[in-house]
Amino acid sequence: MGNIIRYGAVNTKIKAMQGKLLTEEQYKKLISANSYEECIRILKEETNYSELFQGIPADSMRRGHFEVILKRYHIKKLYKLSHYFNGEYKKLIKILFMRYEIEDIKVIIRSKYVNRSREDIEDMLTFKSPLTTIDYDYLLSSNSAEEVIQRLKGTIYYRHIKELEDRIRNEGLFRLENNLDFAYYSSLRKFIKKLNNEDKKIISDITGFEADLLNVTAIYRGRKYYDMSPEEMYNYTIYDYYKLNPEILKKMCYVKNFNEYYEILKDLPYKQIIPMNENSDFLIEAYERASLKKFLSKYLASSKQNISIVISYFYLLQIEIQNIVSIVENKRYDSHNNEMNKFITTAL
Question: Which of 88, 308, 81, 98 shows the shortest CA–CA distance to 209?
């Protein structure tokens, strides 16, 4: 099937959906809102999220529930795009949805780790759809985080996390969650070999850029907050890359101090991700979002008949959710939090 036939209809659809993303002016209004209630009103009355919040009183949405509503809404929209594909490209869309399934697995494991009720966990899950590959009910009936891992046996995730089952009580979930992310990249890496060279290069570049961002921050946090050894940090890196090849990653893992770490980053397009000022660590995630959004913008601005617009739109919806949640939750708890406002404006 030629690319014009494969992408003509779906790219037209995405261009229309892209026009419904929040504008800069709408973001500014949300940031300037004086309260949580005003934020919800703006979303209801002045954005394309109006249908989503009709009939839901602002004060009835618990912390976290707002984000779940947004995610479920976007996943439903993205799922409709899968109907435009068939054959190997249909399978590709299913792999792209793994990232949402992985987030749900993390929610279940985290919740069992702290003994949350099944009802509370179900309220936080976002991705139950025809593309689901796990048995949600089976996992939710587990009595512990370790049992959830055992019950993932037979799925593509189990081999990536089985070694960590006996370690999470003493070491926490940082390593396990990194390995679940690796499962996504590993599956995508194997699959894209089946695509044409143009699409393969686009997916490799986009996911490689994202993997670079994740590696930059994971190495920084692993060294600063988890006291991980260089060997262990290197073993946990995602080796799909755009600029950070294995040699550079190894150097980053083995630096003696953070001055050496910054020195390596200074000639790379990720130098702004890790702030030199220790008190600015809260901006790391914001810089990640902004960098990824800027990287994707060149693909969305094009009219090429390839996979780039589909992939970019997947990522941009996720970034928009994160931005909206940051703004609204900030207003819920402290509308005059200057640090959070700095975080939000940096992320846009």
Answer: 308
